[in-house]
Amino acid sequence: MKAPIFIYYQLDNYYQNHRRYVKSRSDQQLLHGQEYSHTSACEPEESSNGLPIVPCGLIAWSMFNDTFTFARESAKLKVSRSNIAWKSDREHKFGKDVYPFNFQNGSLIGGAKLDPKVPLSDQEDFIVWMRAAALLSFRKLYGRIEEDLEPGNVVVVNLMNNYNTYSFSGQKKLILSTSSWLGGRNDFLGITYLVVGASSIVISIIFMLLHLKNPRPYGDNSWNKKSLSS
């Protein structure tokens, strides 16, 4: 595998597309911070101990917090965690002067904590998490290994299992992948195209056989001849 090697974590049976979950955020607060106070959509994670929460909402509160380290034989592999979020998100959706405030300070901790000294625009793992997935199984970019992996290499992964998926019968997976000029590997689109194409061919053959067995009769043009004779 040639560098860069992309590291993804995958969550299964996780409904990030649930209507209540998707709406529990404030895009204006992410951009402007505490200056924007209309955050009622973030309930029940709008405030804590009488103070506003930045960033508010269930999506931010439930941020993935497993950590991974990688080693090849006895040498640690360097994992880059910069430039993993979309540039448009970093520059236009998360404020450069917006810092976490009163975050994960309630009685119930949902997921990862954020560094209160680093602006949201620079906390890229958070930005990646805030882009909600459309399907119940999804992958999110964790980082990149900047070294080539050769055949026969043994990669040892040490993980801190923090994120609770057991309560909703979910699963967690770790994926290493490379990309080509076509982008990263995604079997879902290929399988979808094959299924739709094969279904279309089968349906076309069925309609053709039905037409050959019971052909549609030609129209009766006798009325047209009568109108011409009159």
UniProtKB/TrEMBL annotation:
Coiled coil: none annotated. The chain crosses the membrane at residues 188-210. It comes from the Eukaryota. Keywords: Membrane, Transmembrane, Transmembrane helix. Its main location: membrane. The keyword Lyase does not apply. The keyword Cell division does not apply. This is ALA-interacting subunit. The lineage of its organism: Eukaryota, Viridiplantae, Streptophyta, Embryophyta, Tracheophyta.
